[in-house]
Design a protein that fits this description.
eight-stranded antiparallel β-sheet, 2 domains, 12 helices, 16 strands
């Protein structure tokens, strides 16, 4: 377990201490109102923790409090880790971003684009080109998610066996099934949140020649001393695991969804999901965000090159477009206005257009259970927020946190 101690007085880190306390006060209201089970938030500046607030329960039913070492489902906060893994292989010259992904997963050579019809009888056509690695990292592949509930292709994913609790087989099988389903659009022409990063994880396995969990462990987790992060919770650690909740009724009361003591995360998963499968702690994810803030290195261990990380956290949408202009208005882990997308991260390109107090160049992502992080290289700042309420769109916590952190800078 990584210790989490406040290492620097907020005033020495450029914050007004009284104003920064507004962050914890505001988040605690969500718990007191019954909307969240508990909260765990950390702010660092210059590589030092300046604020940490823990409140509420990791397991409401058993009256177990949130603690420093509480284990959380981080869902899509897995995606930046998987994207870093693939770019490590890129740095070794083992792949190029323009490479078609059928080079490793041949089934994608035959993937079609949806035109018309229904889920049982779709009408399709040939794509303008194949999906390439860059399309996966930027979510411009044409793939989708089963839970969007927005179109016929989403329904086809559900019919193929995708849901919140399972996928149609192991990661190899899952990718072959995805390849057999039609694309929403020609690769590279739109942005749509999808299973793209799960396919990225499979390519990592095929290029590196090891399973994704082993690759993560050897190339990211061990170098960064992320001792509690993995695809399942060990039996010896199950008491540290948080239950997951969902909002019920008009009052949106946090109601048990996934009991920590009965969860599927207590056993090895069928498919190692690079898109959303990891469990982690605040301390571990802080190690990851500090490595990002430091340009890819922490305590003498470099996981990615400085220029590579700068490249990854640059907006890659064509002609500097934001997600409103280039993306489909579906569920996502970020705002759309004024926010672009890099290689595995959202990127703030226009705070005024986003209408959220933020910093141009700030990059981030979040998870389906309302978790979130962001890294601000300009202000030398990182923020991590962990809780367990699904879906993340229930409350406007992320933009609220932005204003509460930035208003405290002096």
């Amino acid at each position: 377990m990584k210790a989490i101690d406040v290492e620097l007085d907020p005033s020495d880190g450029g914050f007004d201490s009284t104003r920064l306390k507004r962050l914890g006060t505001h988040l605690r209201r969500y718990v007191d109102d019954g909307h969240l089970p508990g909260t765990n938030v950390l702010v660092s500046r210059g590589g030092k923790v300046v604020y940490h607030d823990v409140y509420g329960h990791r397991d409401v039913e058993r009256s177990l409090p949130v603690e420093n070492d509480t284990l959380y489902r981080i869902y899509s906060m897995t995606k930046p880790i998987t994207s870093i893994a693939l770019m490590q292989l890129y740095e070794k010259g083992l792949l190029q971003l323009k490479d078609p992904i059928s080079k490793w997963i041949p089934a994608f050579a035959d993937t079609q684009v949806f035109v018309d019809g229904d889920a049982a009888n779709p009408v399709t056509r040939e794509p303008a080109r194949e999906i390439c690695v860059h399309d996966l990292l930027t979510h411009t592949s044409g793939l989708t998610y089963h839970f969007h509930m927005a179109n016929t292709v989403d329904e086809m994913y559900r019919r193929a066996g995708f849901d919140w609790t399972k996928s149609p087989g192991d990661l190899e099988t899952q990718c072959d099934v995805v390849a057999s389903l039609p694309l929403l659009f020609d690769p590279g022409t739109e942005w749509n949140y999808s299973y793209s990063t799960d396919v990225v994880g499979r390519i990592v396995e095929l290029v590196a020649g090891v399973d994704l969990d082993q690759y993560f462990r050897e190339h990211i987790f061990e170098p960064l001393d992320m001792v509690d992060t993995g695809f399942c919770v060990a039996d010896s650690e199950r008491d540290r695991f948080a239950s997951c909740y969902y909002p019920k009724g008009k009052k949106l009361k946090a109601t048990l969804l996934d009991d920590a003591q009965k969860s599927r995360y207590l056993r090895e998963p069928t498919a190692l999901s690079g898109g959303g499968g990891l469990v982690s702690t605040l301390g571990d994810y802080h190690q990851f965000t500090q490595a990002l803030l430091n340009g890819g290195e922490l305590n003498g261990h470099r996981i990615i090159g400085r220029k590579t990380l700068e490249f990854m956290t640059t907006n890659h949408l064509p002609e500097g477009a934001d997600l409103t202009e280039y993306g489909r208005p579906l569920f996502s882990e970020t705002a759309y206005d004024g926010v672009g997308f890099g290689l595995g991260f959202s990127v703030v390109i226009d705070p005024a257009k986003a209408k959220v107090l933020s910093q141009k160049g700030e990059y981030a992502w979040g998870g389906a259970a309302s978790t979130a992080f962001w890294v601000d290289p300009v202000e030398d700042l990182t923020v991590i927020f962990l809780t367990q309420l699904l879906p993340s769109s229930t409350h406007p916590i992320r933009p609220e946190m932005k204003s509460l952190v930035y208003q405290a800078l002096v």
